[in-house]
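Fig. S4 source data, part A: sequence.
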Amino acid sequence: MTDDLTLTVQHTDGPLALIAVAGEIDIETAPALRAQALHLIAQGHPHLVLDCTRVTFCDSTGFSALIGILRCAKADNGSLTLACVPDRLARMLDLTGISTLMPSYPNATDALNARTAAGKTTAP
């Protein structure tokens, strides 16, 4: 039985949004994560930060959802940044090379600060 997935939008500021993710990201819950992320992108927040502090499990479907979210964010000139990534997911990201496209930080504050700083350095 899967843990329920809880998604909480904790912060929105211009093109940036922070989503706290709690529970399992699997075949049953990954569509909800993807839908919430795509909704935020459509609302004008293409730079997403996912706080994974309370993620208990992520299977290949969840991993695919993260890649799909990344692609959609990039298509809208955005990004996907992760915070507090569980060890197993971090290993998957590193082994596949996705960690170079989807950076992760030890906590949400560091991720938000890095994303904000990156936005300032790329602005005209």
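Fig. S4 source data, part B ends here. The chain has a mean pLDDT of 92.
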